[in-house]
UniProtKB/TrEMBL annotation:
Keywords: ATP-binding, Coiled coil, Hydrolase, Nucleotide-binding, Protease, Serine protease. PROSITE patterns: LON_PROTEOLYTIC. InterPro entries: AAA_32, Lon-like_helical, Lon_proteolytic, Lon_Prtase, LonB_AAA-LID, P-loop_NTPase, Ribosomal_Su5_D2-typ_SF, Ribsml_uS5_D2-typ_fold_subgr. GO terms for molecular function: ATP binding. Residues 566-761 form the Lon proteolytic domain. The lineage of its organism: Bacteria, Pseudomonadati, Pseudomonadota, Gammaproteobacteria, Vibrionales. Belongs to the peptidase S16 family. This is endopeptidase La. Its EC number is 3.4.21.53. The active site is at residues 656, 699.
Length: 790
């Protein structure tokens, strides 16, 4: 045979670390990488999005979990200050709207000054709480208010004295009852008339008294109106006096604040409005109404009137570019909410109970979230789109929006929103959003697509070694020596299923390093060495390989029938991969083909009983087409073939057994036996060319393990497509067996090469008269088919 097996050096590419300096003995000598390795494309996308300030340039980061998407973005943001172009940051505060209490006002303050302003207002209030009562508790105030009171009393007395004298002249007494009402009574001398004495008067006298009293009552009513006006005038004067006294105190304390914030019109306007409101609500400070004062002071933190508190919802004391990671994106955690407080059984709320969300804290910076978590939580996605479109942040009550109740709530003023959103998600979620949400492509215009693997070169191996160093340094692990670094790079290449690629699944590498570190520390080592990495990998495999052990047990006890020596007609060993969520392994399958006189159909038993998937059915149809092109160009093939995977009770899918199936059919046609010590994997096209398949290493190792169970023979081996040769990263025991000549791996480019290996005879080349040589496999099959045709 002209096909030679692959040499052992083609089965595993060991890392030589040629790019590393010879004196670099461990990760201690390597500069840690401050970025995620191999993700230049995604990093450029993030840089592009961060440099554009227009609306809609938010980022959707695509990639499998564990690629280090979040780590890369956070490292980039922390390393390059995206705020270098001078976008100002602000503190945001909510304060009372004295004209409309249900709509609290927003104050925008320079970053880092919000808490300072809050403390200054608290200090101001504490001073006023003490100073205002004192201003009304001194001789000067008492003297001025007493003067006003005396003036009122004098005017009241003089008005009544005139009427009293006039009434007395007309024998009528003006007196004040115990109920506080004025009363006019006819006099009998010096004493008031009794009913009896009044009745003894003549009618004219009685009439005269009544007329006199009626006239006096008219005058009295006029005087009472005057008295009311005098009292109102006095009240206004007292109010004016109080305001003058209070104004002197308030202005004295507020003036320095106004001076300090004269450049900020919003703050200045608020201080002016607060000054007016204090004068309108002096009773809060003078404690004239206990209930009102008690509620006014029902603050949760300080003994000061609630209406003058400053609620700092966002504070940027260090003025750093805000980078917020929201791990639990519920509606309230993102958009904020309004709390309720209870005081003496009364539930109330006000602006001081407004609480910020992560969008508030990220305002002016970046908010990072998981896309699936955002979409899972009710109303969050719609709220996020609404905020991004309007570029405003509204603390609205979710309960009021989603229910029909008319509960009174606050309507705080909107905060201008300037934020970049970065969503992390997989490709399926991205496709769903693109397809079903027309707003998505408008709001998330930048896609950061994370790679699964990177080319394996000397330079990239050095970069990967530095990446390993960064994980070691970040987690304060033991350092890895040179051989351990090489072994981890080999593992990464195996994870990528390619000698020329390295896996970028950083979570796997980090986990392996953590476990290797544990093994090294347990053995009291001072450094992680290659044997520690090997032990960690073995422990990993042992934890997840229960199913593989169970499957291998069926080969040991003979439950699953398999031959690994001898030769049989119409029977071949195919290879399959069995996967669990975190582990996959290979195992051989017996594939058989039987023939009977018929019309040339190939009956796929798996498909007919609905155990075969669509790709498997396609593979069978392709090999049927190839068969027809070989043996049925001139006449119909007079055989019907039945093809099946023996002892397969689950579903079968994939076309990686199509070459094996064809070889079994050719064996059945030609009545030539096939070697059972050789397994084959690979798909084929209609021209018989071998095509690459997946899970190559696991398939080879699975057959190697079964050969070990059934008994080793140096002739055993596996046939693979030539185009899969670069995927070989086999276990060391398999490589060692090949090196010793105890196992073979053949890489073929056409199915005829497989037939030659499996039968020991040439497949045969067709002549001009559409005939194959009699000593070939195809020639023998053609002879039998022609005999049936006759």
């Amino acid at each position: 045979m002209s096909i030679t097996p692959l040499s052992s050096d083609k089965l595993y590419r060991a890392s030589e670390l040629n790019g590393l300096a010879a004196d670099c003995k461990s990760t201690k000598n390597l500069t840690p990488l401050d970025e995620i390795v191999g993700q230049e494309r995604a990093q450029q996308a993030v840089e592009f999005a961060m440099s554009i300030k227009e609306k809609g340039y938010n980022i959707y980061a695509i990639g499998r979990n564990g690629l280090g998407k979040r780590t890369m973005v956070l490292r980039y943001l922390n390393r390059h200050d995206p705020n270098g172009n001078g976008v100002p940051l602000y503190d945001w505060c909510y304060v009372a709207n004295f004209e409309e209490t249900r709509s609290p006002k927003v104050l925008k303050l320079p970053a880092g000054t919000g808490q300072k302003f809050k403390k200054e207002i608290e200090k101001l209030m504490l001073r006023l709480v003490k100073a205002l009562p004192l201003a009304f508790d001194n001789e000067m105030y008492y003297s001025r208010s007493e003067t006003l009171k005396n003036q009122l009393t004098q005017k009241q007395e003089s008005s009544l004295l005139t009427l009293t004298n006039e009434a007395k002249e007309k024998s009528v007494s003006l007196s004040l009852t115990t109920q506080g009402e004025y009363q006019l009574v006819a006099l009998n001398g010096e004493e008031p008339h009794t009913e009896e004495s009044f009745a003894k008067l003549s009618e004219d006298e009685q009439q005269q008294f009544e007329e006199t009293i009626n006239d006096l009552e008219k005058q009295l009513r006029g005087i009472v109106r005057q008295l009311t006006e005098l009292e109102e005038e006095f009240s206004d004067k007292i109010q004016k006096l109080n305001e003058e006294v209070a104004l002197d105190v308030v202005v004295h304390f507020i003036k320095p604040l106004k001076e300090a914030y004269k450049g900020q019109s919003e703050v200045k306007a608020y201080l002016t409005a607060m000054q007016k409101d204090i004068l309108d609500n002096l009773d809060i400070f003078l404690e004239e109404s206990e209930e009102q004062v008690a509620l006014a002071y029902a603050a949760l933190d300080k003994k000061m009137p609630r209406r003058y508190q400053v609620n700092v919802v966002v504070s940027q004391p260090d003025q750093k570019f805000p980078i917020v990671v929201e791990d639990s994106p519920s509606y309230h955690s993102i958009f904020g909410y309004v709390e309720n407080a209870t005081y003496k059984g009364t539930v109330f709320t006000d602006f001081s109970l407004i609480r910020s969300g992560s969008l508030h804290r990220a305002n002016g910076g970046v908010l990072l979230m998981d896309a699936v978590k955002v979409l899972e939580r009710p109303y969050v996605w719609d709220g996020l789109k609404r905020a991004l479109r309007a570029r405003k942040l509204n603390v609205s009550s979710l309960e009021r929006e989603v229910t029909l109740s008319g509960t009174i709530s606050l309507e705080p003023e909107d905060i201008p929103l300037n934020v970049k959103i970065i969503l992390f998600g997989d490709y399926q979620t991205y496709q769903l959003l693109q397809h079903y949400d027309p707003d998505f492509s408008e709001l998330f215009r930048v896609t950061a697509d994370f790679e699964d693997e990177m080319p394996r070169t000397d330079e990239s191996e050095v970069q990967y070694a530095r990446f390993i160093s960064s994980i070691v340094n970040d987690s304060e692990m033991l350092h890895c020596d040179r051989k351990a670094i090489a072994r981890i790079i080999d593992y990464s290449s195996r994870q990528a299923d390619d000698q020329n690629k390295l896996s970028l699944h950083s979570a796997d590498i980090a986990n392996l390093l953590r476990e290797s570190n544990y093994v090294a520390k347990s053995s009291k080592a001072t450094m992680i060495r290659a044997n520690h990495v090997e032990q960690a990998l073995q422990s990993q495999e042992k934890r997840v390989s229960r199913l593989r052990d169970h499957v291998m047990q069926t080969f040991t006890n003979g439950t699953t029938l398999i031959d690994t020596q001898g030769s049989v007609v119409g029977q071949i060993n195919g290879l399959s991969v069995i996967s669990t969520t975190d582990y996959q392994f290979g195992a051989p399958n017996r594939i058989t083909a039987t023939t009977a006189y018929g019309e040339g159909e190939v009956f796929d038993i798996e498909r007919n009983v609905k155990l075969g998937g669509r790709i498997h059915s396609k593979g069978v149809m392709i090999l049927s087409a190839y068969l027809a092109s070989i043996f049925g160009k001139a006449k119909k093939i007079p055989l019907t073939t039945h093809l099946t995977f023996e002892q397969s009770y689950g579903g079968v899918d994939g076309d990686s057994a199509s070459m094996a199936e064809l070889c079994a059919i050719i064996s059945a046609f030609s009545d030539m036996s096939i070697r059972q010590d050789v397994a084959i994997t690979g798909s084929m096209n209609q021209f018989g060319e071998a095509q690459p398949i997946g899970g190559l290493n696991e398939k080879i190792e699975g057959f190697f393990d079964v050969c070990g169970i059934k008994g080793r023979h140096p002739t055993q081996g596996v046939i693979i497509p030539k185009s899969n040769a670069h995927n070989l990263m086999l276990r060391k025991d398999v490589v060692a067996a090949v090196e010793k000549g105890e196992f073979q791996i053949w890489a073929i480019s056409h199915v005829t090469e497989a037939i030659e290996i499996l039968t020991g005879k040439p497949a045969g080349t067709v002549s001009d008269d559409n005939a194959y040589p009699l000593d070939s496999v195809y020639g023998q099959a053609q002879v039998k088919l022609n005999a049936l045709r006759l």
